[in-house]
Design brief:
Number of strands: 2
Radius of gyration: 14 Å
Structural class: alpha+beta
Length: about 70
């Protein structure tokens, strides 16, 4: 993708690109291929709901994203 091309997905369009954070590493539950959780804090994706603040306060991913410059 070049600099002039913009992703054409729901999550990349305003206002969602600034609201949803779904790029965290995920893993499936053992024996259930349709349920996922954060690989760092083990919370289900349905509890995280695309929000950084919904990860556990000590989640490695949350801490790394909170420390990253905007």
């Amino acid at each position: 993708m070049t600099d002039t091309q913009q992703p054409n997905t729901f999550y990349h369009s305003a206002p969602y690109k600034d609201v949803f954070d779904i790029l965290y590493p995920q893993e499936s539950y053992d024996g259930d291929i349709h349920k996922y959780r954060c690989k760092s804090c083990k919370l289900p994706t349905t509890d995280i709901n695309g929000r950084l603040e919904n990860h556990k306060p000590d989640c490695e991913y949350r801490l790394s994203r909170s420390a990253a410059p905007a």
